[in-house]
Amino acid sequence: MGTLDWIVVAGYFVVMVGIGLWSRGRINNIADFFTAGGKMPWWLSGISHHMSGYSAVMFVAFAAEAYRLGLTVYIWWSLTIGLGVGIGAFLWAPAWNRLRAKHDVKSPLEYLAIRYNVPTQQLMAWAGAGLKVVDIAAKWVAVALLLQGFAGVPVGWGIALVGVVTMVYSVLGGLWADALTDFGQFIIQGLAGFAMFFAVAAHFGGIDFMWNIWDQLPASHSDPLTGPYTLTFFMALFLIKTLEYNGGMWNLAQRYMAAPSGFAAKRSALLSAVLWLVWPLVLFFPMWAAPLIVPGMDANAEQAYVAMGKAMLPAGMVGLVLAGFFSHTMAMVSSDANVITAVITRDILPRIWKGARTMSADAQLKLARITTFAFIGLSMTIALTADTKGFVLKVVIALVAATMGPIAIPLMLGLLPWFRKVGPTAALTSTIGGLATWVFLYTEQQFLKDFTVSQALIVSTPLLVSLVLYLVIGFAKPEPSAERDALIDSLKTDAPDVEAVKA
């Protein structure tokens, strides 16, 4: 990296801190900190929802799979998310918003105490918070590996640098800072993504490289599903991503809650769905062509995007690409930290510490900022002590994808009227059974070296067990409740004042 590249990166960090300082003036209480007070424009909510699904993981782990295996990564990742979010625009996005507007909910798990009971809420809060801190640690490692590849900065220093800047603007600015960072990321990623795409097109002599490269690549690179990514894996991941990106990944539920109305949240989801179907193609085509430009990297494919950037981009643009990597990770981590803070301060602490229930508004806001600081610090500590080789893909697929289903199924299906009679017995059993299945299979594969336990099996089986337990116990042992019925029925329409504005 040259001087101009470093100037671009330094300028990006200054802007991020500036966003945090500006956003701080818009934060008057925890409703502003966690849900932007329901005042976020639908288009910003939609862009933020889309960009919150990215991190440097895409340019390390997923880019590596695109380099080694070709088309399949778009099919099992981007396509599943795009279709899932499109479905969720009608099923879940408006409901999340109406929870905030009608029930003063500030955390995605807050409604579970009424929908099921407090033990169910607490199990999912503790399990999800533990999962997220490891997930974020993987994202720190991913961005640090990219910084090391581009600039030779040691991984530990990279984690510390990006982590501290993220901590500053997250603690100051809350969800407003997250969303504005997402929008900045959208601009940076657009510039950097098109720069790489057109540089590759120029290398091959024109835009027709998009269809000509496949004849020069191994035949399996054009297969929709190949390698460990089977039809079973695809089907399981489609269900997982549908649940995850419509609120099972709690920070994405916040984007819908922050919109002005359920109708606006639906528009946000549809915008995000279209972006998921189209934009990843621009990012992946250079990686599909990469084996023809920087061959021989199969053993070190996690550095393939770095090699492409160095080979294809001019001075200054490399810095912009690197700033984009920072932006991806910092935006997602800030978003995750904000929602986990909401869960801790709204759902966990009031149950274990009586003082949290009687805090003043100013004290609640201060607690939220302290919790954000502590959560990011813990994730950085895990990242700094982890064995970085293979850590990113292992966490993203074998841990996050495999355990998201058991945590998300009661949360997400509990919002739908078809499951109104499914009660806490089914929800608790579903979550515990799914997580226990994952622990058994993961232990068999990783520690007992049972290689008949495939990646597809680890991802799909916990989800299937959890779903079956939820449905079978829920319908065999219905637990109807007038309070639950009233909650679910209230999510069908916007509040009367919002309906009047729309009319």
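Next protein, fold it too.
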Amino acid sequence: MCQHQPPCPSADSADRESARLVAHHPEQGWSLLCNGVVLFEDTGELLPDGQVIAPHRPLGTGLMTAA
């Protein structure tokens, strides 16, 4: 699928999110990557085979309060 050199990571690799953008629609909250992954603004993903990856935001950010 990817014509880039070096090729983008495949949809089943751990670094799949580093593939190049093919389409970006921030007003709708999603982007299509070169490897066929649909990346959502909430950090969820839809893989080309239909597998859903749940959002994976870092936990605990912005929850600290001063005493």
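About the second fold: The longest strand covers residues 21-25.
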